[in-house]
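go over both lines:
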Amino acid sequence: MRRIKYTCWKDGNYFLGYINDYPDYQTQGFSKEELIENLKELLTDIESDEIPFIRKVEVLEVA
């Protein structure tokens, strides 16, 4: 099982959020549980290359 960090907040009647490694791609749900399911589906789409031009956060090591 993988652990993926995400950010979420409530805005009116919706829970909004994004996967921290992909902040350009947000999703929403009427409940936090629905948001989490939508985040899982979004991650599947991102990792299967269904969404073009994905920006990724990576670490650069400099001496």
